[in-house]
Amino acid sequence: MPIPYGRPLRNQKIAVMDACHWPCPDHVVGEICIGGDGVADGYAGDPVQTEARFITAFDGRRWYRTGDLGISSDDGMIHILGRMDTQVKVNGHRIECGDVASALLGIHGVNDAIVVAREDGAGRHLAAYVVTASPQTTAVALDHALRARLPAYMVPRAWCLCDALPRSANDKVDMSRLPAPQPLAADANDVCPAQSPLEKHVVAACDFAMSGTGAAHLGEDFFARGGDSLQAMAMTSRLSHLLGREVSVRLLYAHPRLGDLAHALAMGGTWRGRRHRSRRGSAGNRRMARYGASHRHGAA
Question: What is the pTM for the complete model shown?
Answer without folding.
Answer: 0.54
